[in-house]
Each structure stands twice: as structure tokens, then as C-alpha cells.
Amino acid sequence: MTPVLTIDGVRVEASPGATVLDACDAAGVYVPRLCAYPGLRSTGECGLCYVSIGGETLRACSVAADTGMTVDTTNAEARSLRAASMRVILAGHPHVCLSCPERDGCSRDECTYNNPPEERCCGEFGRCEIAKVASYVGGLPDAPAYVHGWRGQTLDQTILFELDLCVGCGRCVAACDGLDEAGSALELVDAVVRPKAGDLRTSGCTMCGACVMVCPAGALTAAGGRGDDWLAKRRERTSLHERVLPPEDLLPFTVRVIEALVPAKEGVFQLYGQGGDTLLISGVIDLRAGLLRTLEGDVAPRACSFRFEEDAFYTQRESELLARHLQKHGSMPQGDVLEGLFDEDDDL
Amino acid sequence: MTEQAREFWRWSETAYQTDDVDWRSAGSITVGIDVGSVSSQAVILAGGKLYSFYSTRTGSNSPDSAKKALSGAMDGTGMSTDDVSYVVGTGYGRVNVPFANRAITEIACHARGANFMAGPTVRTILDMGGQDCKVIRCDDKGKVQNFIMNDKCAAGTGRGMEVIADTLGVPIEDIGRRSFEIDSEPEPVSNVCTVFAKSEATALLKAGWSVNRVLAAYCAAMAERVSSLIDRIGIERDFFITGGIAKNAGVVRRIERITGVEALKLPEGSNLDPQVAGALGAALFAHALLKKEQKERAAAGADL
Ligand code: SF4
Ligand code: SF4
Ligand code: FES
Fold first, then answer.
1. What ranges do the domains of chain B cover?
2. What is residue A347's predicted lDDT score, i.e. its pLDDT?
3. Is B175 helix (H, G, I), strand (E, B) or coil?
4. B40 in Cβ contact with B34 (< 8 Å)
5. Could you check whether B14-115+271-303 and B122-259 share the same CATH topology?
6. Where is average pLDDT lowest: A59-73, A182-196, B7-21, B29-43?
7. For residue B151, what pLDDT is reported?
8. Which atom of ligand 1 is the closest one to the Cα of A212?
9. Which fold has domain A1-148?
10. Mean predicted confidence (pLDDT) in A48-62
11. B28 and A323: CB-CB below 8 Å?
């Protein structure tokens, strides 16, 4: 039977056997995840996919979609649990570059803030899935710095294992499993991946590349130009599903992005903080100038990403978006300049 | 419109100034300016207390309207723009307050202004402006909690009423009173669209309706439309009406009848004008923002 559920107020038909996370994917509603990957079984341990199901906060990847369920993916408790999980994950994975104001275009060779090289991000910087998910979920600034030990870097045939980067999500184990009778050539030991029998070949590896394609952490890579070619060829043959990433039109809130992508035109921008909280909805005569000004204002330290739309009737559009926000949340966006202006205190 | 033609739709400009406050010794002058599509208002606070306000029609050039409203509020006080420490602009034309330190959405300003004007018991505010109609729900501090506005159509707004005033040749101040000078309440007109209002009103007159009866039918139709908007986010006491139409008893009393909730009246002899709620809220925010900045500066100074 086809389960029919309600996700964020919208009726969704899921395929039989789908998890709530699958149903969200089918509905085009993004829910963060690391251990889950479409079509693969997940360990259900990363703790990023929390949603509220009928008032209970649960991991979407571990609950079967069922008729009559009401799912709220924006639930506040769910979001704070996600952020807490993300902090735990980042405590075991280098991340200082991710929350750095200079992150765009930094080569990471010389650090303006003198972060030691062992704490800086790895070679996957810029395309890393963890970074994208982390900036969506939040939890970056107060995660303790992780010190990279550069232990256990091994090149097994074409696949490079960087054990310090592994977050133990188990995707690679699941991707390798079920490819043939032999089962997975990989296993997790103490939340770190390793070939079952010591090296890949004796573990039954067929060099299909699936594990490299699903790794969100840069722990399994096919490094260098030769590796890229190798991977590109294998990617064509793979039956893996596409990765599900945070929505793209959310742009990182940085000078570089604003200057490169935002026109000096009338419109409305929405600013988001950690976990997708709306901080600001603002209609301005010049989007670029408005965003750059906001970058220097009080909300900036709390802001992670933004979205903008051009609209000549920007004050009206702003009111529409505010109305939508108020009807959902019952208060103005939290980063509004008005915060703290309501308390009567004596005159000057 | 020819030279001699009377402009029936025009609300008279309103102005207020008090002698109770001496702005020169007040410590700070803060200003709120609300540039709407039909009218613009400026409110001046001296030391956080209401000092003066002025309301004028918005011309085709909004920056001029903002300046006109402000100079109207300063007229005869000896105050100049140099004396002003902080300006907040609001309203659809708010970017046209080029001298504003900050722009703040009119939703927040209306709630803040209504809270100040009618007191902390206000929970539902209906603002009937020139070109739109909003319903705002707020808490005891005037913080917005919910908000809804009409779709992009001028029916049920000040502009719609102006068209009727003009078509029927009735000064807009008289519409409310005259709409009750009838034997029995007519059915509301079917169409409050400003585009059709003119021809429909003319048709009713031809069919033998009295001018007052047509006015009643229009006020009723507008009240129905607005009430259904209020219904969408619910009405909670106290209920307060701001904007130009707050002065039109023909619409207000019919809204009260439909919703079953009486709107809060300003105390007899109050100098406040419900039309300046937005500008008043903006001025109050300007005052609070100025204080915040001064505090931050003082704290930064202490750090050095
Ligand atoms: S390359 Fe393929 S077979 Fe080898 S470990 Fe990775 S997924 Fe398994
Ligand atoms: S190697 Fe990558 S995919 Fe495998 S468990 Fe570690 S982080 Fe996950
Ligand atoms: S995706 Fe659900 S716990 Fe990891």
C-alpha cells in the first residue's frame, strides 16, 4: 500500500517501504543527513535527520513512512538536536576553515588567523559534503577545533584512505555491500573505516569506486589527476543514486558571493542563521548594497546564508514574505533590528 | 480635472503641535516618517515625548512628500533638520526618505504606534491605508505576532473610498455621517473594485437610489471585505483601527457590526490622529535606536 503522509503541510505519497527521509526526498523537502544515502541502508547514527513526527522528535531515516503521519521538518527541537549532533561530528573532523570569514578563495597554505595547519580543512575543501550540510545545520562556531593527526594515510591501489577525516558514517560500507555475494569489503571499527582483511584486494574489492563516490568526508578519495580520471569513468557505470544536498539557492553570506552574484537592483533578501532560522526579511532598493550593509551589522555574526529575489515592488513583496513568516512562527524574524527596542526604560 | 472642480476626495491635512514640551531642552529630537501611497506623515518626538505631527498627501515625488511632511511638523517651531538626531522611515515609499538613518517595515511601526496611542491592551490592529489593508496581531508591548494583508487590489482601501467620494461629489469627511442617513440599510454593492465603482455608482443613482443610500451600500461592501480579511487571522480584544478610513464612521461602525467587536476609541479630546500610527511607531523606534546607539558608544568609550 502506498503510504500517504503530510510533510510540512503538504500531502505526499511515498513509495512502499520508504523511510520518512525517503518521503521527504520525494517531496523535495531537504532534511540534513550524513549516514543516510538514497538507496543505501543507513546506520541511523549520525543524528542529523531529526524531524518531528506527530509531535515526537525522531530520526527520519529510521522511521518507516506510514499513512496519516504528520511530519514537521522545521521543528525547533529537531533543529537543535541536529546542531548538537553536528557539533559531535565536527569534534572529530577538521573544520576551522568552514566558519572562517576568509573561507572563499583561501588556499589554506597561509592562514590569516594563524590556525595551525593540523586544524585546517582538507583537500576536499570547497566540494566537501560535510561542509555543505554543516553550514545548513549550524553548530560550526562552537564546535571544538579538531586537531588533525595525519595518522593512517594509506594508498590502497587507487583509493586513498585518510583515517583522520573519517566520520564513521558507514556509507561506504553500505555502498560496497550488496554489490556482489561477497558482501562489503569494508567495515567500521571504532567508528573508522578499514578494509576487512587488511587490504582492499584480499577483502574482495572490485575497484568499482562506489565507496569513494558516497564518502561525505573526503576520507576516501581517488587523489590526483589519475584518480579523477579513474573516478569519472567509474561514475558513468555506477548505479548509485544522486547525492541529496542542501538547497542550492541558499548562498553563503560572504562578501565575495554577494559581490559576484547579487545585482544592484531592487528586491528582497532573506537572511538565515544556523539551522535555517530566518534572521531577516528585507526589501531594499539595492540588493547588493543592502546585503553588504547587513554584513557589517549586528546580525552578521549569526548569519550563515541568504537568498534573494529581484522585485520592483519590494516593499510589498517584503510584507508578503513577512506575513508568511509571521503566520508560521508567530513573531518577526529573530535578527530584526527591533529586538530589544520594546523595553521601556527611562529617558536619557 | 479642471481648475474649478472641487477635489471631494481630499482629506484635509492634519497638524498638531504641543506647547507642553520644550524641544530645545528635551535632549533629543527623533523623527518617524511614513510615506504611504496616498498620504505621508511625520511625527516628531522631543526627549521621547510626542511633540508634533503632520499629515499630507503623497505627491508623485516621494522624497518631496517626506520633506513636506517633516517641514509641516516643524513649521513655526524654530526647529530645523539639523536639530534631529535620528530618523526612521517607513511605509511603501520609505526608501524615499533619503535622510533616514534606518528604514523599518510599516507592519512593526503600525503595531508600535497603535500600542502607544491606544495602550497596551490592543491586540488586533486594522490599518486601512490608501492602497492596502492590513490586519496585525500584537502583544502588550506592541510586538507583531501575526499579520495579513489584502491582495494586490485597491478595493476596500482609502483609494477606493476616494473614487466614490469623487464620483458622488461628497466630501470624504461627510461620507460616514451621510451613509447612516437612510431609512433602511441597503444590500452591499456587489463590486467594490475601484475600476468598476464609478460606473456602478452612476448606475445606482440612475436607478433612483439616493446618494446616501449608495454611500451606505459602498461602506457596507467595504466593511464586509475588510471583515473577511480580519476573520482570516482572528480578532482579539482590544481592537484598534488606524489609517485614513479609521475616520470614516460609515465603514468603522459596519465593521464593528459584522465582527461583533467594538473598536477602541481614542479618549475624547485626544490630540492623536489614528492616521499617524505608522509614523509614530517609526518615531518611537527612532528614539529607542538612538538610545541604544548612545549606550553602545558609552560602553565602547568606557572600554578604551
Ligand atoms: S571500490 Fe567498490 S568494491 Fe572496493 S571498497 Fe569501494 S565500494 Fe567496495
Ligand atoms: S570513509 Fe567516508 S563514507 Fe566511509 S565511514 Fe568514513 S566518512 Fe563515512
Ligand atoms: S541520516 Fe538519519 S541518523 Fe544519519
1. 14-115+271-303, 122-259
2. 40
3. helix
4. yes
5. yes
6. B7-21
7. 61
8. 6
9. Ubiquitin-like (UB roll) (3.10.20)
10. 95
11. no
Low-confidence ranges of chain B (pLDDT < 70): 1-13, 59-63, 130, 151-159, 188-197, 302-304
CATH architecture of B14-115+271-303: 2-Layer Sandwich (3.30)
Taking residue A302's Cβ as centre, other Cβ atoms within 10 Å add up to: 18
Contact B243, B158 (CB under 8 A): yes
Which CATH code is given to the segment(s) A151-236?
A: 3.30.70.20
- B202 touching chain A per CB within 8 A: no
Helix locations, B25-105, DSSP H: 62-74
A337/B144 touch (CB, cutoff 8 Å), yes or no: no
Helix (H) or strand (E) holding A220: strand A220-221
Q: Whole-prediction pTM value?
A: 0.63
ipTM of model:
0.80
The fold of A251-347 is GIY-YIG endonuclease (3.40.1440)
Fold of B122-259: Nucleotidyltransferase; domain 5 (3.30.420)
pLDDT tens digits along A236-292? 887 888 888 887 667 778 887 788 778 898 899 999 887 678 899 999 889 999 999
CA dist B230 → A218, B94, B227 (Å): 55, 26, 5
Contact A82 CB / ligand 3 (< 6 Å):
no
* Residue nearest ligand 1's atom 4 by CA: A205
